[in-house]
Specification:
Blueprint (H helix, E strand, L loop, with lengths): L1 E6 L3 H13 L3 E6 L9 H6 L7 E3 L5 E3 L1 H9 L9 H30 L7 H24 L10 H12 L11 H11 L12
Parallel strand pairs: 1-2
Antiparallel strand pairs: 1-3, 3-4
The chain binds glutathione.
Glutathione binds next to helix 1 and helix 3.
Length: 201
């Protein structure tokens, strides 16, 4: 069976889990404790030279790394990724945008809050919030035109962008100022296979 190396609170890993559940792909979770450094061991480094999660181990033992690359691998051949190269590029553009312009700015204020560093890191958090909010504005505009990131149907892009936007409130973002984004979060949560970051909580 496919294995997903994740951690309990990793948003990047949540992306992959959400997609696998939506597609009905069976997998086994291997949940690491990052605080113990279990992603820095020689064994894990052999699975991912970048020493990060998520990592997917396929049934033949091959490893996939980087959440966007993993999402694209599993979306291949499904309705979540267009076969037309131009439409496909529009979908993958969102995944690149998330990695370059959103993820760090949304994730780090949350990480600092979770690790009790909000006060010590107040200046950097203020900077991240400013950049992150500017990067959310194009999404608010996009959802004024269509219900999903790529037109009127969910695509793999929605799976790539949902987790850190949903989790951003834990880092102090006020999502209420983005009504169209909030509507999309609600639509996403109604997709088949949806499960919260920590199931049962
Ligand atoms: N660009 C990577 C980022 C992965 C990443 O930052 N993972 C975090 C957990 S969400 C991690 O493993 N952090 C441990 C570390 O960097 O030491 C992806 O999208 O997969």
């Amino acid at each position: 069976m496919i294995k997903l190396y994740d951690s309990r609170l990793s948003g990047n890993s949540w992306k992959v889990r959400l997609l696998l559940r939506h597609l009905g792909v069976p997998f086994q979770r291997k949940t690491l404790n990052l605080a113990e450094g279990s992603h820095k061991t020689p064994d894990f480094t052999a699975r991912n030279r970048f020493q990060r999660i998520p990592v997917v181990e396929l049934e033949d033992g091959c490893h996939l790394t980087e959440s966007a690359a993993i999402l694209l691998y599993f979306a291949e051949g499904t309705s979540l990724i267009p076969s037309d190269p131009v439409e496909r590029a529009k979908v993958t553009a969102w995944l690149f945008y998330e990695q370059a312009d959103l993820m760090r700015f949304l994730a780090f204020p949350r990480f600092y809050a979770m690790t009790g560093q909000s006060e010590a890191k107040a200046d950097v958090i203020a900077h991240y919030r400013e950049v992150g909010e500017a990067a959310l504005a194009p999404l608010e505009r996009a959802f004024g035109e269509h219900g999903w990131l790529h037109g009127d149907m969910p695509s793999v892009a929605d799976f790539g962008l949902y987790p850190y936007i949903r989790l951003s409130a834990e880092g102090g973002y006020d999502l209420a100022q983005w009504p169209a984004i909030c509507g999309w979060l609600t639509r996403f949560e109604a997709l088949s296979g949806y499960e919260p970051l920590v199931p049962g909580v």
